[in-house]
Amino acid sequence: MQYDPIKRSLGSVFNKTVFLRKLFYRLLNLLLLRSWHIHKELRRWIKPESPIILDAGSGFGQYTYTVARMFPDSLIKGVDVKEEQILDCNQFFLKLKLNDRVIFEKADLTKYIEEEQFDLILSVDVMEHIEEDVKVFENFYKSLRTNGMLLISTPSDQGGSDTHDHGTDSVTGFIEEHVRDGYNFDEIKNKLRQAGFNEIYVRYQYGKPGNISWKLSMKIPIILLGISKLFFILLPFYYLVAFPVSALLNWIDLVTEHKKGTGLIVSAYK
């Protein structure tokens, strides 16, 4: 059983009302360690007045919602290749009455450029799905304003794709199909430099504490949901026990400088 289909199924349940969807976003931010690391980097960001932000690969809109709340004076565009998600997010943010400063459009990141338009480009769990990654990095560089920041969260080559099958050119695992089994430090730095970036910072996430937390808070429940949807009824009781432990492990992962980990957080400046 894979992570993404179950996440989509849960998303459809929580999408029935505005309250439930906002609750789903908040639960994901609490449970997903990468959200903790992204929040940390966003709090460090020295933003300009009224920033313009691109959520590149916006998906269900979780991180668009995050930056909209963190930066209430911002203008935000979310782009994704899936038309149904674009329609869904535009409808939801209209209900939130945020459509005056948040918009979603269908776009292919290998072709999408808005010259010197954005102060921040956010790309969360996207680059591992795109073969032409250097082309996308070049498009990001062209689309950033001077001193703009690109913030990436992506699996590392130390097992971040949770791969179980190497039988094809792509990488299939618990976290759905990836075109590569994660990045290493030098590879992603070199590709970003090739695209034009000079100031690049890379650090590991999902060290030992984070990996235990991931299994406890996400992988085990999703495997059980894949066995039987009846486990959905038991989830609140499971998390009463699991979440305090998972939250502590997430915090330890957040404040620790890891020598290795299954995820990378990358910030690059134009």
Characteristics:
7-stranded mixed beta sheet, Rossmann fold, alpha/beta, 270 residues
What's the arrangement of secondary structure elements?
Layout: H1 3-14, H2 18-31, H3 33-44, E1 52-56, H4 62-70, E2 75-80, H5 83-95, E3 102-106, E4 118-124, H6 133-143, E5 144-155, E6 163-165, E7 172-173, H7 185-195, E8 199-205, H8 208-227, H9 231-255, E9 263-269
Parallel strand pairs: 1-2, 1-4, 2-3, 4-5
Antiparallel strand pairs: 5-9, 6-7, 8-9
Summary of the model, kept short:
It contains nine helices and nine strands.
How would you sum up this structure, described in words?
The protein has helices spanning 3-14, 18-31, 33-44, 62-70, 83-95, 133-143, 185-195, 208-227, 231-255; strands at residues 52-56, 75-80, 102-106, 118-124, 144-155, 163-165, 172-173, 199-205, 263-269. It has 270 residues and is α/β, with parallel strands linked by helices. It has a single domain, classed as 3-Layer(aba) Sandwich (Rossmann fold), CATH 3.40.50.150. The protein has a seven-stranded mixed β-sheet with strand order 3-2-1-4-5-9-8, sandwiched between helices. Strands 6-7 form a two-stranded antiparallel ribbon. The N and C termini lie far apart (40 Å).
Count of individual helical segments:
9
Task: Name the CATH superfamily classification.
Answer: Vaccinia Virus protein VP39
CATH C-level class: Alpha Beta
Q: Mind telling me the C-alpha Rg?
A: 18 Å
Query: How many separate domains?
Result: 1
Helix proportion: 40-55%
Series of H and E elements: HHHEHEHEEHEEEHEHHE
Care to count the β-strands? Answer: 9
Give the biggest sheet.
Answer: 7 strands, mixed
User: What low-confidence regions span 5 or more consecutive residues with pLDDT below 50?
Assistant: 163-174
Shape: globular
CATH topology annotation:
Rossmann fold
What average pLDDT do the residues reach?
89
Structural category: alpha/beta
Alpha-carbon distance between the two ends:
40 Å
CATH architecture: 3-Layer(aba) Sandwich
Strand content: 15-25%
Record the strand order, biggest sheet.
3-2-1-4-5-9-8
